[in-house]
Amino acid sequence: MPEFDDKVVLISGTGGRQGRVAGLMFAKAGAKVLGSDIAADRSAQTTELVREAGGEMASLESLDLADPSHAERWADEAISRWGKIDVLYNNAAGVGFAPFEDASIDHWDFTIRNELTIAYVAARAVWPHMVKRKSGVIVSVASVAGHRELSGFPCVAHGAANAGVQALARMLAAQGAPHGIRSVSISPGIVPLATAPQNPDVPASSEDVPKVRASGARPFWQYAALGRSAEPEEIIEAALFLASDRASYITGTDIAVDGGMSGIMWSGDR
After folding, report:
1. CA-atom Rg of the chain in angstroms
2. Which GO MF terms does the UniProt record name (predicted)?
3. Does 163 map to a domain?
4. Cβ(176)–Cβ(123) under 8 Å?
5. N or C: which end of the chain has fewer CB within 10 A?
6. CA count, 13 A, side-chain hemisphere, 68
């Protein structure tokens, strides 16, 4: 029997690469998936891909989950379809890029809203349904930047927002424990993008790693002890475990899935 049979999993940001992989992997494990994204076309494509692969998925677009009315609509849709919510996977995020001297208060507010507030609002929307059933798991995606600042990464609020996501996960764990609710955060390191990024420090895929090395640059992911960026599937595997009953005694902590970036000061050549 698939591990998530009869489980209802809400995944935000299903228009992005990690959200798409999460939808496919949770559905393959048997979950009934409800996605959402402000990027309506890409999120709808994810839903179709999951269905074509034999999984069960629906999605609501275009939703801004930092808006409480949108988040409540999303949670209500899951209850209307399946009568419960077992897992919230807080995956959606948006970040603005600018060095400190150029960043405006709008830049700061955008990142805090779309990395931290969005996770808080989504959790509030599912919370009463989990409390009512005395069970539930909230897995929130943070970042290695919540552990250590990435010098040269031009985003003034990214580290602060993701340290906030980690703290939010701990708070939800403390508040949720009497109700049978677990909460954890995952902090990825450098994850490749779906298309070639503007930032050359982030390879589009693991196949691009030799090209970046040959350029003579010292990219962020080279500071990972494993010497490469992560694949999205490696992040989602951690999420699947943490959301499952196998992790029934894990709550209130952050799991770094970063190739050693947050724990090892790697300076060696490769």
Report:
1. 18
2. oxidoreductase activity
3. yes
4. no
5. N
6. 3
